[in-house]
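Hey,

Quick one before I head out. I ran the complex with nicotinamide-adenine-dinucleotide overnight. Inputs first:
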Amino acid sequence: MLGSTGSIGTSTLDVIARHRDRFEVYALAAHSSVDTLLSQCLEFAPRYAVMMDEDAATLLRSQLPAHSCTEVLQGESGLAAVVTAAEVEVVMAAIVGAAGLPSTLAAAQAGKTVLLANKESLVMGGHLLMQAVRESGARLLPIDSEHNAIFQCMPVDAQATPSDKGVSKVLLTASGGPFRRWTHAQMVAATPDQACAHPNWSMGRKISVDSASLMNKGLEFIEACWIFDLAPQRVDVVVHPQSIIHSMVQYLDGSVLAQLGNPDMRTAIAYGLGWPERLESGVPPLDLIATARLDFESPDEARFPCLRLAREAVAAGGTSMAVCNAANEVAVEAFLDEQIRFTDIPAVIEHTLEHVDNLEPVNLSVIEAADTQARQVASRFLANLQQTVGALGRV
Ligand code: NAD
Ligand code: MG
């Protein structure tokens, strides 16, 4: 369980707790939330707990009871050790952001069943990750609700080559986020708490901001192209404010298959954990009468430029997608720290994409170098923005 203390991590442990006879937790990993990881260790008794932060690892070690069976490891080497361990069959990749790439890739290279929530790793290193899956015989099961829905609506065993099985398009649904009806002027003044108040889903703060800017859909657009081996023109985005249809697959004969359910990640998580069987997840059954309506509209790329920027990054190929992701992470963090405005996020990404070289992503070092360079360019641009914003009397 990588990212066990987060939103996906705690939902995953909730599902696992319902099926103690079926799953044993080998390792739990998180960045620095000692209290949450400690209580998870006490409940699930993993063989290992991994903390990225050194002080947090020391603190956790000192707080575990003397008779505990859990050994505390630290850092990237700790993550690598647990994801490649022979005892491990399934790795839940639920670290947030680019930080998840090395461990997700290591799990894929080790031939594990990878439950992929950490979409940023696929956006950055899609080519490498999919190649690792093919070469090692690993299985990648998408946990992102849209891709999980698409996976469920694809012909059996056709996830990797859908064009041969009569699939014409994938229709990726988007809630539209909390600012779906906001004007640009309103979004200029949006606060982090307003951006994180998603109408349908409860999620970590980074992905919540991505949902508000529609960059989440941009990242998911890239994710869909990689997972299902689709050309970008075969992925359409449809705004569906109720978030009941989690995505659809359109076939050559005019059929459209959709997966519906309440917006609760435990459905996708249980599907990944149980596949090809179905597991009880704790999600209440869908009440269609209470739902009553399913609405659809086109995304407004003028008010939400992040979707266009993600499309442009796919079209450019190479390390552009990693650059787009890194610039977005820098911008979202600055917005959450109230250093820039919400509407500055796409400006930071666009500037960074224009000023970082696009390279062939032949290995992890090239991708990490592009990520580092993009963070530097984005941070410099941010510093200039902050001066301008400061001069305007805004913080
Ligand atoms: P979160 O912020 O709630 O949790 C993030 C987890 O990652 C925490 O356990 C944290 O300790 C850990 N972490 C952070 N930085 C780390 C680092 N450097 N090294 C190791 N661990 C680190 O995030 P979340 O909402 O659970 O999202 C996790 C991932 O799942 C993201 O990639 C997100 O896009 C994806 N996802 C989330 C949802 C959702 O509903 N929350 C839905 C679809 C996809
Ligand atoms: Mg999603």
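The CA atoms of residues 389 and 395 lie 6 Å apart.

Talk tomorrow,
K.
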